[in-house]
Amino acid sequence: DAADSDTPAVPRSDSDPPKLFILPKDVSSEARVISLPNPANGATARYYCCPRQGFYEFTRIAAPKSAPRSWLLTPERRAKASSASATTTIDQNEEEPEDQGTVKPEEDAPTNPLAKGYITKSPDIFLATPFDALFITLPALVSAKETQKQMFLSIDDYLDKLSASSPHLRELLYTESIKRRLEERVAAVCDTVEAGEEKMYRISMEKLAKEVVSKAQRLTANGLPASLEEKFVRTALEKPVMNIRREDSSVSAVSETATDGTTPVETPDTQISTEAASGSQASKDDTTSTAATSFCSPPAPSEAKPAKPEIDAPEGVPELLRLRTAIDFICSSYLSAPLRQQVQKVLSSLPDVDFSPLRTHMEHLASLRSQAQALRSISDNVSRKRATMDDDEAAEARAEKKRKKDEEDAKKKNQSRGVKQLAKADTSGMKKLSAFFTK
């Protein structure tokens, strides 16, 4: 009981637990977290602003729900290890020098909740990534009504619109470096005219579209992430399988041969299905191995992953699809819906990027998929008819068997009691009555 009373109680979960952030290095002491309207949907979002380095957005990195994680936070403590070869010691009464940047846990306990360590339930972490100030200014550059004509305005007029949408940004505009950065990004997508000593700006959709294309090209310079590449490029450019009926027949032939216990002989018809079956089995094995070893040590360097096959598409088409995927991502993430439609219209007429080869190839793939769907429908209809015929034959056999059984039951019911008793008598060694009437 005494031991149980000495055991500290488990603290309750916090309703507002701390969050982990990864912030950039060498930021100004005036850097702060601010609230600004999201340029895509207008909802309030948090950003990190540094007068020297610019704006950053927070990207949330979360662990999958299938693999629960948590963070263990420990306070920074002073190292008290002594060297074995040390010839001098510190007097016990002498105060040890404090390391710069360290905090005593006992002094920090009343103010810092993490002084004694902390375990977070959520494994999320927020990464501050560079954010172009251009997207902050776009809501002010575009008119609220689509039918309203765009006018040339000064930079102060646009900044006044921005400050009205966010009190945090209103305070930041007093910083000269922030104001100059916003003005530079406004000039990158606007037409300008001189009105006396003041420069006037009006947004140009063509310049904005070129800016989006430039960002997309930088994004795809080293290729898309593996997940995006698989979902939006490889899957989209995958050709459909046209020989469905031949493949179905080969699968049945292989399965029947395997059932008999003999080794199947690979013919040209069965080779495709055998390779497909082995490929699917290999993928299942890989998936099972990955799921089973996700918590184990990493594989040895010698175990290299098999290289993925090249994309079967005309030259230049995969690059165009990657570029279009990046453009769609930028537009959906940072442009409002009306502005997105205007930019998409301008993109189709830009001379810098020609998406016609991509459109032609995608139309060809759509035609192949429709043909494959038609063949699949025919194959399904034939399979249904064959199954229906088999069902009819089985039904007829069952009906015939039932009819014969009913006839036998009827004969047994019509027999007299004496005949039934004689049928039970032992007649072994006796002649039949008909034997006496033979010639």
From TrEMBL:
InterPro entries: RNase_H2_suB, RNase_H2_suB_wHTH, Rnh202_N. Keywords: Nucleus. The keyword Glycoprotein does not apply. Residues 288-297 have a biased composition (Low complexity). Gene3D superfamilies: 1.10.20.120. Coiled coil: none annotated. Residues 1-20, 73-115, 247-313, 379-439 are annotated as: Disordered. It holds the Pfam family RNase_H2-Ydr279. Its main location: nucleus. The keyword Nucleus applies. This is Ribonuclease H2 subunit B. It comes from Saccharata proteae CBS 121410.
